[in-house]
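Lecture 7 notes. Example A: sequence first, then its structure tokens.
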Amino acid sequence: MSTPQTTPATGSPSAGSGPAESPLAEPPLAEPPLAEFPLGVVEPEYQLWGEVDVDPAGLFGEEAIPAADRAYWDRARRFGLEEVRPVIDDYWDRSDYPFQLATRLGELDLLRDGIDVEGYPAMSTLAAGLVNMELSRADGSVGTIGAVQAGLALRSIAYCGSEEQVARWVPQLARAEVLGAFALTEPTHGSDSVSLETRATRVDGGYVLNGEKKWIGNGSTGGITVVWARDDEGSIRGFIVQQEWKGYTGTTIPGKLSLRAIWQAHIRMENVFVPDSHVMPGANSFKDTSKVLFATRLGVAWSAVGHAMACYESAVQYASQRTQFGRSLASAQVVQERLARMHSELATMQLMVMQMTHREERGELSPVQASLAKYTCTRTARQIASNARDLLGGNGILLKNRVARHLADIEAVHTYEGTETVQALIIGRSITGVSAFNK
């Protein structure tokens, strides 16, 4: 009878069916039981561009807006939703200029700001305001492209240019065949623009320009720049400078945190020769410059209304879609109070611009009233944007959720064409009869 063989290592009996298992081997794991993924942790895609009632005081009803004006408004609204909305976050994020959107503004006849242009139907002051509002409601950079192109560059030539200059440049600017800039602000003279130091020296056949300008929208896009400079007698003159001319350098300012989808330039002009054909005969003093600025100040107020409308409607929609503490944000008392505050502030802004627009159409708007509209609307839009950003919580700083872009952009709108402080001093002078601008 034979005895079983043992392995030297373990003394275990040899099995004829194969080698023995090592005691160090892990036992096979059982399949874990299947569990449902907690759907409550998946964030929904918030829809923050939808339709919300943004007319608290009932100012924009069918009876209040003539059909011709509403046609401009509707066209601007469709442009914003269908053409700006799908692409603007990418342009804003890359700090790139949406040239095709500027071209479309011209094709859609949204670049006249109420100015009469041969071959075009009349555009009222109200229609211009509604367009400014709607473009900024879509995006501040797009709204600023329109404001610079039409409100400043085109208007300067229409107001101050010769018949030949108007005939050549105004239709091209209205069609966006040429992009236009308005160069007044200097690196050392912002709010104190009347003290500008860019020089225009008279020479045979024209002038030679030397100086620098800063924050010039469209100043590096390859079009034309309306340059304001001081001549040999110390008077402020206006010149149409083609950006490809020798001595003109427009450098896009990098690192902006506001209005990132429009290029603002730092311009340097070294011995730029401007022929007499490009000297605007109607621009001979700062009063002529001020005529242009006065006409655009109400447009800035309308733009602020557009920013506020965008932030308000996004806040309303987010509050209805966002769930916290087992209920929608919209059901919280504090949220309803904040929405009511924005609602009230928006109505205040809209009432202001509508009243001032009616006064302008009657020829009764004063510079102080234009300043009051700009002062009130931009500072109130900042409040609405800040409130909306906070209401969205952490989601409020995401570009895709819309509000952060407007929050950043309204900071620039609040500053350009006269800071809040400057507007306040204009208003204060009218109240007290005492100028705080005097040295």
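Example B, a different protein, same format:
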Amino acid sequence: MGKCLDNRGVALKSTREKKESPKQRGRVMLALVALAYLVLFLFDANKATIALSHAAETLMMVAPILLIVFFLMALLNVTLSAKAIAKHLGEESGLKGWLIALGGGILSHGPAYVWYPLLAQIRQNGAKEGLIVAFLYARSIKVPWLPLMASYFGVLFTVVLTLFVLLGAWLQGVIADILLKHYTRE
């Protein structure tokens, strides 16, 4: 029996094939990292100890941000339905969705990877991919650093650069939406 192909000639998975869950991927990743540390420890215990020390320092640095993001995720689950998220950040969100994504990106702090779980959950609940791209791109604008930038480069330069970054964030989001609609089928 032949395989079913999509419009790009890629074999479609049958409904019987189970998709690997994020929890399973997380466990596999944890096991691989633990194995890597074990191998490193066998070859050079001193370097393994230093690496674990740096990992612990990094964890302590991002733990407060992770707690805030997990709190926001829980709050999001309790207060907003998928329908509400789709209304504000979905296909029909329009200008309001872009303003939320760009403004949220500017106001967000901490490392980008800490925001990935929340953004993935929002995406699963119907947010447009382009808005998530715009959010991540707009994170390059750091409000606390704008006065320092203005003092070094001038107010006009700072305003023009900030506007171009916002324009770039919007364009990247639009391009992502076009490409993802064209190359994905769900």
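Note on Example B: Residues 20-63 form one domain. The helical segments are 22-43, 45-79, 82-89, 94-107, 112-124, 129-138, 146-153, 155-183.
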